Amino acid sequence: MPVGEPVDLVRHWRLSTVDARTPDEHALLLRQLLDLEGLGPEAVGGIAVASSVPAATAALREMAARWFRVPLVALGPGVRSGMPILYDSPREVGPDRVANAIGCYDLYGGPSIVVDLGTATTFDAISAAGEYLGGAIAPGVGISLDALFHEAAALRRVELVEPRSAIGRSTAESIQSGVLYGFAAQVDGLCERIQDELGPATVVATGGLSELIAPFTRCVEIREPWLTLHGLRIAFHRNHEGGVSG
Predict the structure, then answer these.
(1) How do beta strands 47-49 and 72-74 pair?
(2) From 9, 37, 176, 182, which residue has the greatest number of CB atoms within 10 Å?
(3) pLDDT at res. 9
(4) C-alpha dist (Å) from residue 16 to 56, 154, 201
(5) Residue 7 has what pLDDT?
(6) H or E stretch including 166?
(7) From the annotation, which residues make up the binding site for ATP?
(8) Which residues are catalytic?
(9) Are the C-beta atoms of 115 and 206 separated by less than 8 Å?
(10) Which amino acids are annotated as binding site, given as ranges?
């Protein structure tokens, strides 16, 4: 299962989403991260955002204008994505899903399926012509585990490593089997159903938990950890011809 990386990805960081974070706080965090890498604010030539939290999007817009004085593209309605959205209501499609589809089609063409293993597990289908067709949404691994441990007091969190067999011989192994093999089976099952309608398609996995689940699937051909960032970069360029390439 090859692991790809978008062209021109120079640095990457992961931060938690805090709705109440102010534009000044966003600017401080970003400048500190750049400083850790020996970079200054002049390294930022533009900002692209995929956000479904309006308050966070507004704060980032103000940060970009006030502290970095660079253009910001927030993927969503009214932004040129270069990809027809064939959802019944295109405004309902999450910007991260659109970014994934843009990045996947650019790298691998279509038909293709993106499996994003994050807070939710999402499945997105792209046609051979580069159209976003729709997909499926399921509770993510983290959400499901939180519910399991909260509702079943006798169960405790365990290290998620491959068990000796699918038939767990301890509570820890049973949870490992259920999570790793169970979610992998969910991915395979939904991808097979989508391909029944779409036809043979390249299956690409992304998201923070793809490294954990994708190796146990049969259908995932490629892991692309930074697919969303690749799609965002493309969207930025489609809306700002003079945008930076990194």
Answers:
(1) parallel
(2) 176
(3) 75
(4) 12, 29, 33
(5) 55
(6) none
(7) 119
(8) 96
(9) yes
(10) 87, 94-97, 116, 119, 171
**CA–CA distance, 246 with 163 (Å, rounded to integer):** 40
Q: How many helices (H) and strands (E) does the chain have?
A: 8, 7
Q: Taking a C-beta distance cutoff of 8 angstroms, is the pair 126, 111 a contact? A: yes
How many CB atoms lie under 10 A from the CB of residue 74?
A: 22
Give me the count of residues in the chain: 246
Q: Which two tokens stand for residue 141?
A: 């691994």
Residue 235 contacts residue 100 (beta carbons within 8 Å):
no
The answer to whether the CB of 243 falls within 8 A of the CB of 237 is yes
pTM, full prediction: 0.88
Residue 11 or residue 23, greater confidence: 23
Q: What is the pLDDT of the chain when averaged over all its residues?
A: 89
Q: Collapsing DSSP states into helix, strand and coil, what is residue 121?
A: strand
C-alpha distances in Å from residue 176, one per residue of 16, 168, 236? 26, 8, 40
User: Burial, 197: exposed, middle or buried (Cβ in 10 Å; 0-12, 13-18, 19+)?
Assistant: exposed
